[in-house]
């Protein structure tokens, strides 16, 4: 089985840009739905400006003749919210917008709907064992709650209709142009910042942009993907000190790490309001993707070392 016509939402975003190129290279006909106008156009793979995606977005006509919708557009996770009701805003975009698109896709006869969710649906950290696709959800912030509610709404809708549903829950995604904490970490490495993190012995699973786009492409075509929720990662966890070493190696810089009592770092983080950042730097987040590997016969095609070199090799320190 193979589907040839795909609509990608959020096509000019961090994941979307790479995915569109990957699908085009795989001879897929791609329609790119974006929020803001782009400078370039592609006659073979048209770009359509949709504005904000919410429950009122008009999709009629755009979905005609599409085999697959890959829904990437969302209100992303924000570490420090500055809106009065972040859950309401997340629901407007991530839940209402997603379900409006899915209903329009059903009406247009779309065959498969691929939804990029988040491992945050499972929770923020692991302790005695990795996350599994069969775990009960444990979202802890408005973003994760909205992602779970979107999943549940899609499952209800698709159970009543003929459209197939595929859900993918990635962990932190990295690649060229990554933003957020990884971008800050990369800049600090480039500025020869000394990190008091040599004593951290954690294990966190990430996924590179290259491996994620390959998995999404696999889910476009694979007959066994229908009705499944897939957890994914690069295939091996790394510690925070190892992450810093990978970034430093990619930038041809020294990794300046020194030991420091974690209890003191934890206290300093609490006093300065940086507990969330410290938890991510020192805590564990492991993913068991046995289900993904076995059902799809899929293995991440790019190694962690190669992914890190690709992601951080051309990062400027300024």
Based on Cα principal axes, name the global outline: globular
- Average predicted local confidence, pLDDT: 89
What proportion of the residues form beta strands (DSSP E)? 5-15%
Going by CATH, the homologous superfamily of the domain at 5-175 and 206-233 would be NAD(P)-binding Rossmann-like Domain
Which CATH architecture of the domain at 5-175 and 206-233? 3-Layer(aba) Sandwich
Radius of gyration: 20 Å
Query: Tell me about the biggest sheet?
Result: 7 strands, parallel
| Unreliable parts | none
Number of DSSP helical runs = 10
Distance between the termini: 48 Å
What is the strand arrangement across the widest sheet?
3-2-1-4-5-6-9
What's the CATH topology name of the domain at 5-175 and 206-233?
A: Rossmann fold
N-to-C series of helices and strands: EHEEEHEHEEHEHEHHHHH
Query: Percent of residues in helical segments?
Result: 25-40%
Alpha-beta content class: alpha/beta
- According to DSSP, the number of beta strands is 9
Mind telling me the CATH class of the domain at 5-175 and 206-233?
Answer: Alpha Beta
């Amino acid at each position: 089985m193979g589907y040839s016509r795909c609509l990608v939402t959020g096509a000019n975003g961090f994941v979307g840009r790479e995915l569109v190129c990957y699908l085009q290279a795989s001879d897929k006909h791609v329609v790119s739905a974006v929020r803001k106008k782009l400078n370039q156009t592609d006659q073979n793979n048209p770009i359509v400006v949709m504005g904000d995606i919410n429950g009122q977005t008009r999709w009629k006509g755009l979905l005609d003749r599409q085999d697959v919708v890959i829904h990437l557009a969302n209100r992303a996770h924000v570490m420090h919210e500055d809106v009065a009701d972040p859950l309401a805003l997340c629901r407007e975009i991530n839940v209402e917008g997603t379900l409006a698109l899915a209903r329009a896709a059903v009406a247009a006869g779309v065959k498969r709907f691929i939804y990029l969710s988040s491992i945050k649906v499972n929770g923020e950290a692991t302790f005695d064992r990795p996350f599994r696709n069969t775990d009960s959800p444990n979202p802890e912030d408005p973003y994760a709650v909205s992602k779970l509610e979107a999943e549940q709404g899609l499952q209800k809708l698709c159970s009543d209709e003929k459209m197939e549903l595929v859900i993918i829950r990635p962990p932190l995604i990295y690649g060229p142009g990554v933003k957020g904490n990884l971008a800050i970490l990369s800049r600090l490495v480039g500025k020869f910042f000394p990190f008091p993190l040599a004593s951290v012995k954690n294990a966190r699973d990430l996924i590179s942009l290259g491996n994620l786009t390959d998995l999404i492409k696999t889910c476009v075509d694979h007959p066994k993907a229908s009705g499944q929720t897939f957890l994914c990662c690069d295939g091996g966890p790394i510690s925070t000190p190892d992450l810093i070493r990978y970034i430093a190696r990619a930038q041809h810089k020294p990794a300046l790490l020194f030991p420091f009592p974690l209890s003191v770092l934890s206290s300093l983080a609490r006093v300065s309001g940086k507990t969330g950042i410290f938890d991510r730097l020192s805590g564990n987040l492991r993913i068991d993707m046995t289900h993904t590997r076995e059902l799809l016969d899929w293995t991440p095609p790019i190694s962690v070392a190669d992914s890190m070199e690709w992601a951080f090799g051309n990062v400027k320190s300024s």
